[in-house]
Design brief:
Strand content: 5-15%
Number of domains: 3
Distance between the termini: 73 Å
CATH topology of the largest domain: Aspartate Aminotransferase, domain 2
Mean pLDDT: 91
Shape: globular
Helix content: 40-55%
Strand order of the largest sheet: 2-10-9-8-7
Number of helices: 18
Radius of gyration: 25 Å
CATH superfamily of the largest domain: Type I PLP-dependent aspartate aminotransferase-like (Major domain)
Low-confidence stretches: none
């Protein structure tokens, strides 16, 4: 056996060489910083960074290549950090790398513009924010929900929750609600969160290390990227469509690449009722995906973040949610975090209550992530809206049928609007992503310049929508039925004008 002291001496010698080379590299970086400052060049050049990594990767033995990639990426971070201090592009009070430019949320800003337009033109179409509205244009608030809330004593509403993880009866009720088909048979843990957003944030924060990569859909809710940026994570994307049909081939390809690069896969899948397209994978595709990821997990851990924000507004609810049975087939080296928005289910968006449901074959894996989630929650929001957790439990236990009846009436309204819009879109040739169900449909526009011109033209015609990468999202959930009639044709005419 080699003497440990000899090995440590060898490492000391190598570290000494590294220190000398590091200083030489940073001295060169300093010269680069001065040049960039004089010429107004950004310190950020991802394409060059990638070329450098790919150039030198073959010089490293294959088993060390993922670690060399991490090492090189950390060097880039340090180099840019130093360059930014020379170029005065940082702020001395703010953590390095944080974006302190003005934040403008596309959906909320578009909604504000729509409300201003509505004041001068009642025929304005507000297809911006994802809230269910009635045909009178006002938000739907279920009596079954708020009657239950009124029955929660004021002192309960004023109290802290029963624990950082949420009230035990709330967590149990959420699990039973999500498991209405009684098809989840592996260990689970539940943590209460401020909305579905809090659940996703918990998962993103705790499943990846700094500078690792989060995999998200190529057309997706923009907050996934915001969360990744807040935690110094990189983002890569996968396509969810092939020949304008839902496909998992893009997921498979990107998951394989991610496993090769970082020995771990963390992927967000927004299903069913994907935002912004209204696509749903279905049980067969989920089964195929889990089978593939099981095989991939032999190389490293795989975590699925399943964003089910619009889960309860699937038109074909039983078939669209039967996929959860597939999680039972996950390997020991896989887990899933199912992110539930209680706020959206109950159309109580401002109450901010959600849940992160951890599913894993190994009890230990579920327990470890559960404990980690609780610590992060304590440091972030402490605990969740006690009164509304009680409200959910009361509603489910005392008036579930009344709620389901009201929800079905709202769902029928949404179904009718989507039927009108989709049928007219097909008749007039308005290009849509393959919508099945949910709050939103999206016009497919691949050309960025055309996308920008089209979005601006829609605004000028008092049709307010939200621009995504490669598409224009239309919130059918909030547009009265009478304004859905003829909307697709108007949007196609405007598209023709700007093409």
């Amino acid at each position: 056996m080699t003497d440990i002291n000899k090995l440590r001496n060898q490492i000391d010698e190598i570290d000494s060489q590294l220190a000398e080379l590091f200083q030489k590299r940073m001295e060169t970086v300093e010269k680069v910083a001065e040049y960039k400052k004089l010429n107004g060049i950004s310190t950020n050049d991802p394409s060059r960074e990638q070329k450098i990594i790919e150039k030198h990767l073959p010089e490293v033995e294959e088993k060390w290549q993922p670690y060399y990639r991490d090492f090189q990426e950390e060097l880039f971070v340090l180099s840019k950090k130093y360059q930014d201090t020379k170029n005065l592009n940082d702020d001395p009070f703010i953590r390095y790398g944080m974006d302190f430019s003005e934040y403008r949320d596309a959906a909320f800003n578009a909604s504000q513009n729509a409300r201003k337009a509505m004041a001068r033109n009642p025929e304005t179409v507000n297809g911006t924010v994802g809230s269910l509205c009635g045909d009178d244009g006002t938000i739907i608030a279920f009596d079954s929900v708020y009657d239950a809330y009124d029955r929660v004593p004021n002192k309960r509403k004023a109290s802290y929750a029963g624990g950082i993880q949420g009230n035990p009866d709330f967590n149990e009720t959420v699990f039973n609600w999500l498991n209405r088909l009684d098809n989840i048979r592996i260990p689970h843990r539940n943590v209460a969160t401020p909305g579905g957003t809090g659940a996703i944030s918990l998962a993103v924060t705790n499943l990846l290390d700094k500078h690792e990569t989060l995999l998200i859909p190529s057309i997706a809710w923009g907050s996934y990227r915001v969360m990744a940026g807040q935690h110094d994570l990189k983002v890569d994307t996968y396509d969810i469509f092939e020949n304008n049909e839902v496909s998992i081939n893009g997921m498979k390809k990107k998951c394989a690449e991610m496993m090769e690069h970082q020995n771990k896969v963390v992927i967000i899948i927004n299903d069913p009722c994907q935002n912004p397209t209204g696509a749903t994978m279905g049980k067969n595709l989920w089964a195929e995906l889990i089978e593939y990821l099981n095989e991939l997990s032999k190389q490293g851990p795989v975590a699925i973040i399943n964003d089910i924000a619009y889960f309860d507004y699937a038109i074909d609810w039983q078939n669209s949610t039967a996929y959860m049975e597939c999680f039972n087939e996950m390997s020991d080296n896989m887990l899933a975090v199912v992110c539930f928005s209680c706020s959206k289910t109950l159309t109580a968006y401002g109450m901010r209550v959600g849940n992160a449901m951890i599913l894993a074959r190994r009890e230990e894996a579920a327990e470890h992530l559960y404990n980690t989630f609780i610590r992060t929650a304590r440091a972030s929001w402490s605990n969740v809206n006690n009164g509304f957790m009680d409200c959910f439990v009361k509603m489910v236990n005392e008036n579930k049928e009344g709620f389901l009846k009201e929800k079905q009436e709202a769902l029928d309204l949404l179904k009718n609007r989507s039927r009108i819009f989709l049928q007219e879109a097909e008749e007039c040739g308005l290009p849509l992503y393959p919508y099945k169900e949910g709050f939103f449909a999206t016009v497919r526009i691949d050309d960025e310049d055309l996308l920008n011109r089209y979005h601006k033209a829609l605004d000028s015609h008092d049709i307010y929508t939200v621009k995504f990468a490669r598409g224009i999202r239309v919130a059918l959930c909030g547009i009265p039925t009478n304004k859905c009639i003829g909307l697709a044709g108007r949007m196609k005419d405007i598209l023709n004008e700007v093409m």
